[in-house]
Amino acid sequence: MNAVFPVKNYSFPDDRGHFGPYGGSFVSETLVRPLRELEDAYRRYLKDPEFLAEMDRDFKTFVGRPSPLYFAERLTRHYGGARIYLKREDLNHTGAHKVNNTVGQALLARKLGKTRIIAETGAGQHGVATATVCARLGLQCVVYMGSDDIERQTVNVYRMRLLGAEVVPVESGSRTLKDALNEAMRDWVGNVDTTFYIIGTVAGPHPYPVMVRDFQAVIGRETKEQMMELEGRLPDAVVACVGGGSNAMGIFYPFIDDEEVELYGVEAGGEGLSTGKHAAPLCCGRVGVLHGQRSYLMEDDEGQIVDTHSLSAGLDYPGVGPEHAWLKDRHRANYSSVTDGEALQAFHLLTRKEGIMPALESAHAVAYAGQLAGEKDKNESIVVNLSGRGDKDIDTVAKLEGIRVAVNTVISC
Amino acid sequence: MVCRSRTFEKLSGRHAALIPFVTAGDPDPSETVALMHRLVEAGADLIELGIPFSDPMADGPVIQRASERALAKGVKPVGVLQMVRDFRQRNRQTPVILMGYLNPIEAFGYQNWARAAVAAGADGEIVVDLPPEEAGELKNHMDEHGLDSIFLIAPTTTPERADLICTRARGFVYYVSLTGVTGAASPDGRRVKAHIDEIKSKARLPVGVGFGIKDDKSAATIAEFADAVIVGSALVDRIHRSSEAGEDFKQAAFDFVTELSGAISTSRDAEEASA
User: Which residue of B has its CA nearest to A292?
Assistant: First the structure.
């Protein structure tokens, strides 16, 4: 299919949402028609100048785009190698890249006449971003969240409720993001006539992976322009963390054709890949089908999905967007992992060196960029997608260090 | 071409057939085969056996929990096939249809799975998250080994797609009576009938109806126009409750299926009388 924002020598996915052997649409029959209607709407409106103008206006005045590209001078000096730039998605309204996609999908929902929005969330960032746009557009909002995640992200749960969203705890399975996605999908099956499902990442059945990528690609397009302004050339490398993979696809996609730009995706290494307690399907998973798509998965020999582990709730997911699987196989992007400990170190380092507190998810990308910068020459440059800010993680970090934070909010469900 | 499988023959009779669904291994893997025999004694014309999966996206809470319990007891896909094989030692006639999700089959390997399922004595399989557009390779292997590929048609299915599904399906077509997960609210009999009549006008296959059929009354309503009535969550729930209460869950299943079977026969008789 023709991408809405085409890249010259790259034309994935195909008409049925396949990225080579990955992607596709593996759903129960009831959802086939709603997904096709969604695809039609996405294709129509993302070529409609009026719709695009509306989205751009929202990006500018509601989200606060363009987000700055910041030269991290002291961090660069610390690692003593390539120049490190941070794409400041943490400065977006609601504090992460997630809002780019929810603005786009909510506008689409309104065009389709849907009055009820559902979403799944892990760390709560996508849930907050969804609740935020729903408040603004006056749409009913229901967010599914694993009960374990509700416990580790109390502040975001409260934020969603303040915004008028109903947060539904999911008690099934491992009570994390994957189960929240199952539950949201079940809700959608039962309410397709009135309800629009805003998936928060580049995973799920077609057209979600391509649609979410296209909404997030604003990150990469801005980065390109900003690098040309600041350095007069493209970066040598782009680094982003990968859970489902939306911030990474958003910044990678506009660079896919620029083969001299290396793309690095960083998965959650948890307690280390050898311990099995991680969330790194691209690094050591197998190919399978989950949540409507074929991609790399964390599964056992019988094809049952296994529990994952990461310090950061946003990366704690056993699957990954199909386009990442495809970029890995084509060797266009490299995927590796960073442990909980390394991410935590990077969290502190960036906070102290630059006065920027990253989300634990984004801290994974920072940690990897540090290693990479050390291997690169001083006149080379690396852009790190700083996908979110770390306020939501203060409790987690404090707990790890045995500190009780006074602002700890207790919310009953 | 219509593939006249055993399932097809069984459901092509003049009267509606009864298809109870149970999750393999719940509540006790060592009792599943005995449970299947009891279902047949109670009037099951065909048995649908669920293969537990960690992420059953199309299922409501009752079957989700049953899956979780079965997995916790170590039930694996290969173990489910062993149950079918054991069932076949005493029953060679009653068709057994497997129901599950794609990923465990991917892990097993498509061809190996189709071969092993048929060798064990299974007659067909419903892969809930595999619409016909994505089914090509697995369906080829299923066709080759003679495992009926049973596809779903939903209230949201367009007439064009229904045509496509009817061409590709084998054994029977499974009509999902409501837009929702398994075990959700009761279907609207009249709306279902209108759809079924339309599908039957083009399908050369029997049409079974499932999702949301909870009791003898709703079973009788559906039996008036469907070729088969599929009862899942309501049965799984009874089995679970009686097992939790320390009662004989096989007897509870027997009683419930006897009730359903009786209701369907009454509906058959009424149909005949009016014919």
Answer: B129
User: Which chain B residue lies closest to A32 (C-alpha atoms)?
Assistant: B157
Is B22 inside any structural domain? yes
ipTM of the complex: 0.93
CA distances to A128, A164, A187, A195 from A133, rounded to whole Å, are 9, 11, 20, 15
Flag if A28 and B61 touch (Cβ within 8 Å): no
Residue B173 lies in a domain: yes
Residue A173 contacts B, CB cutoff 8 Å: yes
Number of domains in chain B: 1
Assess whether B248 carries a catalytic annotation: no
For the beta sheet containing B47-50, the strands, ordered from the edge strand earlier in sequence to the opposite edge, are: B148-149, B124-127, B96-100, B47-50, B17-23, B228-231, B207-210, B173-176, B152-153
Look at A29 and B102 and tell me if their CB atoms are within 8 Å: no
Which CATH number fits the domain that encloses residue B20?
3.20.20.70
In order along chain A (413 residues), what is the average pLDDT of each group of 10 residues? 66 95 97 95 94 96 98 98 98 97 97 96 93 97 94 90 98 90 94 95 98 98 98 98 98 97 98 96 97 97 95 93 98 98 98 98 98 97 97 90 64 43
Whole-model pTM?
0.95
For B183, the domain range is: 3-264
Q: Is residue B273 domain-resident?
A: no
Quickly state the pLDDT bin for B179 (edges 50, 70, 90): confident
Residues of A in contact with B78 (CB under 8 A): 302
Q: What is the mean pLDDT of residues B56-76?
A: 95
- On whether residue B271 sits in a domain, the answer given is no
